[in-house]
Amino acid sequence: MSFTSILVTGGAGFIGSNFVRMMAREHPDTKITVLDSLTYAGNLENISDLIDAGRVRFVKGDIRDPIAVRAAMSGAEVVFNFAAETHVDRSIEEAASFIETDVQGTYNLLNFARELKVARYVQISTDEVYGSSDGTDFDEESPLKPGNPYSASKCGGDLMCLAFANTYKVPVVITRSSNNFGPYQHVEKFIPLFTTNAMEGKDLPLYGDGMHQRDWIYVEDNCRAIALVAEKGKTGEVYNIAVGNSQPNLRVAELILKHVGKTDSRIVFIEDRKGHDRMYKLKAEKVRKLGWQPRTDFADAMEQTVKWYVQNRGWWERVKSGAFREYYEKHYKDKLARGKAK
Ligand code: NAD
Ligand code: DAU
User: Fold this and answer.
1) 150 an active-site residue?
2) For the residues of 74-123, what is the DSSP string, one character each?
3) Which of 67-76, 189-198, 319-328 has the lowest mean pLDDT?
4) Coil, strand or helix: which one is 35?
5) What pLDDT does residue 328 have?
6) Ligand nearest to C-alpha 325
7) 276 pLDDT above the threshold of 80
8) Is the pLDDT assigned to residue 336 strictly greater than 70?
9) Distance CA 242, CA 282 (A)
10) Hey, which of 47, 82, 100, 221 would you mutate to test ligand 1's pocket, going by the most ligand atoms within 8 Å of its Cβ?
């Protein structure tokens, strides 16, 4: 099924841009608006071809800003909220921006979803809300036990969503996925950081003993699940999204080195992240019952992902150096200021 018009917040980030690209490709009749404030993590290059082609209307704005949100959400049938502060290490240094965007921003979006009577509001959340697992698989009813300021702020957003579904009957659904990988992921995150460092012949900084596990899902498999939950999910319900592919970080680092084919990089064990969650484990039967199943094999997708970073060196070099901001200034600033980018 296609939606007539969707608002994608955070659509210039990693998962949001992959979602926008998938929807633009597979649903040619769906009108797509992206609302993104372009923080350090937002990169217009991720969707610039679609903006240039007039396929995506881009609005530079903050989800905490009522005026920007009302304008961007007007006419939207479905809202997908990908916008968030997302990096655990940054949240350990400074959590205020996480609370402001992930809780306050979500609250602001919900208020307008209610007022404008959107048909569906999809909150993109994370497996981290359940905290570290001792081997137990968490289902959607498991208690929330966040282990760091990022996941605590995501819990705040999720709970506000559930409150709006119950109190005001806003048609909210929540997805909680495991770790995503794929193209356009910011180089601060594990897989792109290690891949690009290996290409540059730099060390790969592995936290602690390197045996923390993450359950990796290819980004497009997650995007398909999110679209399905928007269509078939039940209001007020949470849907876990995971494939059950837990890998110790050390093994993923070794795989990256193999695919990059560089011998001048080495894995270096460094001081552990504070409060580092050992592993996440999800039961995802509920989303499978809606008809979802992953299409991607981890080994193939890892090889393709590393290849993407090898082939798109300019993209990540601009992210690492901050030069992607100049790209934005050069290509879009005037257009956006005049309100003509669409
Ligand atoms: P990202 O950091 O790559 O992108 C976040 C985007 O949100 C950026 O484009 C940024 O500019 C925008 N943004 C941030 N604050 C904003 C604000 N106040 N107003 C408007 N835009 C703002 O993040 P990602 O990895 O693509 O994650 C997207 C969503 O998925 C997040 O909600 C995250 O919690 C969730 N999630 C991510 C993963 C993962 O592995 N990456 C896994 C599970 C859930
Ligand atoms: O589980 C879903 C979450 O996955 C999302 O909600 C978050 O937004 C996303 O950032 C991600 O969080 P993680 O903390 O799991 O991802 P990160 O890429 O930061 O780290 C993955 C693992 O790699 C983790 O165990 C920490 C480790 N790591 C990470 C970095 C950046 C290292 O060993 N060295 C590093 O330099």
Assistant:
1) yes
2) TT-SEEEE------HHHHHH--HHHIIIIIIIHHHHHHHHHHTT-SEEEE
3) 319-328
4) strand
5) 73
6) 1
7) yes
8) no
9) 6
10) 82
Q: Which residue is associated with the tokens 């709006």? A: 164
Q: What is the pLDDT averaged over residues 141-148?
A: 98
Q: Which of 148-157, 264-273, 314-323, 331-340 has the highest mean pLDDT?
A: 148-157
- For residue 126, the cross-strand partners are 177
Is residue 340 scored above 60 in pLDDT? Answer: no
- The sign of the dihedral angle between the CA atoms of 80, 142, 102, 108 is positive
Question: Is residue 218 among the annotated active site residues?
Answer: no
Q: What is the 3-state secondary structure (H, E, C) of 125-190?
A: EEHHHHCCCCCCCECCCCCCCCCCHHHHHHHHHHHHHHHHHHHHCCCEEEEEECCEECCCCCCCCH
Is 127 part of the annotated catalytic residue set? yes
Share of the chain above pLDDT 70, in %: 97
Ligand 2 atom 21: the closest Cα is on which residue?
190
Instruction: Supply angle C-alpha 17, 35, 191, rounded to 5.
Output: 30
DSSP letter at 46?
Answer: G
Tokens (6 digits) for 111: 């208020």
* Phi, psi dihedrals of residue 247, rounded to the nearest 5°: -135, 135
Q: Provide the whole-model pTM.
A: 0.97
Q: How far is the CA of 17 from the centre of ligand 1 (A)?
A: 10
Cβ contacts of residue 300 below 8 Å, gap of 6+? none
Q: Which residues pair with 177 in a beta bridge?
A: 126, 241
Structure tokens at 105: 């921003």
Q: Which one of 36, 62, 102, 127 is the catalytic residue?
A: 127
Domains located in the chain, CATH noted: 5-184+216-244+274-295+324-338 (3.40.50.720)
